[in-house]
Each structure stands twice: as C-alpha cells, then as structure tokens.
Amino acid sequence: MTPEASERLRSICMGLPEVEERLSHGEPSWFIGGGKMFVTYADHHHDDRTAFWCAAPDGMQRILVDADPGHFFIPPYVGGRGWIGLYLDGEVDWGEVQEVVLDAYLSVAPARLSALVQSD
Q: How far apart are CA 116 and CA 55, in angstroms?
C-alpha cells in the first residue's frame, strides 16, 4: 500500500469518535473504544493485492461483491460474518472508501457513538 493510501485510510478511520489504531494479526487495524474492530488492512494478506477488510451492514456484502467483484471481495476469516474487502491497489474512489468505512463503523458502534456520527 502506498504511504498516501495508508494515510488516507488512517485519516478516515481516526476521524470517527473514540477510534483507536493498533496492530491485529500484524496489520494496522481500527477499533471502537478499544473493543470491537471495524477496519483492518490487508497488505498482501493471502494474495498479491493490497486492500482493507471491514464490517458491513447485513446483506451489504453480497450486494457489493455481486455489483463489482473486481473492486469488492469476500475476505478470508471474517467473510463468514458478513465483512467485505475493498481493493486499494488500483484506482481508488476515496468518497466510496469513506462511505464503506462509515457503514463499517455504524455496524459495530454502540448507539451513543452512532448517534454522534449520524447527527453530523
């Protein structure tokens, strides 16, 4: 992952309330309030691609992967829980990344934090 891409993803994640960054399985990952992970890097994790994996609202995984399988994928390990993967080694729509990260956050965050984001 290019330093620019990693910093942009980090900035999006860290811009949300009560988010902490720490390593998980050797990759930078973001957690809400020190508890639940909602985004993790996947830097050549099981393939030769750079991406991130994240939580997703119910049913969204299949919708996104079916609509654009060259861009979205079902990640190993967490795919069975509905998580999605989004490739970052091609042309990246950062507005889309921001929306996907926000959906991931809202899928995991407690109601009090979701309310803070949704009231903005």
A: 19
- CB distance 118 to 103 below 8 Å: no
pTM, two decimals, is 0.90
Domains and CATH numbers, the chain: 3-110 (3.90.1150.30)
Q: Do 84 and 73 form a contact (C-beta atoms < 8 A)?
A: yes
- Provide the sign of the torsion angle of the four alpha carbons 1, 11, 60, 36, taken in this order: positive
Q: What is the 3-state secondary structure (H, E, C) of the chain?
A: CCHHHHHHHHHHHHCCCCEEEEEECCEEEEEECCCEEEEEEEECCCCCCEEEEECCCCCHHHHHHHHCCCCEECCCCCHHHCCEEEECCCCCCHHHHHHHHHHHHHHHCCHHHHHHHHCC
CA distances from 32 to 10, 13, 18, 20, 99 (A): 14, 10, 6, 6, 17
**Which residue has 């959906």 as its token pair?**
103
* Mean local confidence (pLDDT), 66-86: 93
